[in-house]
Amino acid sequence: MAKFINKLKLYCLDKGKTEEEFNSKVQCQNDKDGKGDWISYWDLDIDKPTDDELNSFENNANKEENNNTVDVTRRTAYGSWNEQLDEIYHNIDNWKSRIKKVKDDNPKS
Question: Which of 65, 69, 52, 56 is nearest to 14 (CA)?
Answer without folding.
Answer: 56
